[in-house]
Specification:
It is built from 8 helices and 5 strands. The protein is α/β, with parallel strands linked by helices. It has a domain of about 120 residues: LysM domain (Membrane-bound Lytic Murein Transglycosylase D, Chain A). The chain has a 5-stranded mixed sheet. It is elongated and about 95 Å long. Pfam families: F-box-like, LysM. It comes from Medicago truncatula (Barrel medic). This is LysM domain-containing protein.
């Protein structure tokens, strides 16, 4: 007489063998390349049309526009157009306009609030502390933006760049791309009534920026 356990062991063994054979089956083949949408796919010519790309890219923010410029030459030529870059740069802050072209192409990579600053022409009696109170910012933020080691650095400058803490300040404003020699950086500068100080030495820096290449490449 056979033991009932022998039959159970046989069933278990067959079940394990069937499970092993089913799990070792190869994965399904990948979809054919003709169904994958890619700018390198000749079967999808729309992504190589500059008109179509302009319609798509004009809705992209700065980070996505930068990524698009790295895909291929056609995409880069469209994503680097000044009007598209300017629109993407202005959109988050509802700026009215941006004047000038940056010397450094990396300027367009970042349009955070830290990219903007107010130009304050220094007059008698100004101090870093008093300006911090006037503009509701921190003393250390002013010194950091202007590359100042101490408060005494204010006396050797024509102006200070004031960081912006309230984004509402730049709504419907015009900013000017300038290279600040003291701050050692390019900044989108705001002036009172959107009128630059023509006596300032920074005008030459702004003019040199405006004469740079019209195409704004985004690495």
């Amino acid at each position: 007489m056979g033991c009932c356990c022998d039959e159970d062991d046989g069933d278990i063994l067959r079940h394990l063998m069937n499970s092993s054979s089913s799990t070792s089956s190869p994965p399904p083949p990948p979809p054919p390349t003709s169904t994958i949408i890619s700018p390198m796919n000749s079967h999808f010519s729309a992504l190589s049309s500059t008109d179509t790309l302009q319609i798509i890219f004009q809705n992209l923010p700065i980070p996505d526009l930068a990524r698009a410029s790295c895909v291929c030459r056609v995409w880069n030529s469209v994503a680097s157009q000044r009007d598209l870059v300017t629109r993407a740069f202005l959109a988050p802050w509802k700026l009215k306009d941006v004047v000038g072209n940056p010397i450094s192409r990396s300027f367009w990579r970042d349009n955070s609030l830290a990219k903007f600053a107010i130009s304050h022409r220094i007059v008698r009696g100004d101090s870093v502390a008093s300006l911090a109170v006037k503009y509701s910012v921190q003393v250390m933020d002013i010194k950091r933006l202007n590359n100042m080691m101490s408060d005494h650095g204010i006396y050797s400058r024509e102006r200070l760049l004031i960081p912006i803490s309230n984004p509402n300040i730049i709504v419907k404003r015009t900013c000017f791309i300038e290279l600040d020699d003291n701050a050692k950086r390019e900044v989108a500068v705001l002036y009172p009534d959107d009128v630059p100080d023509i006596k300032s030495s920074y005008v030459s820096n702004r003019i040199s920026s405006e004469e740079s290449n019209k195409k704004c490449l985004i690495p």
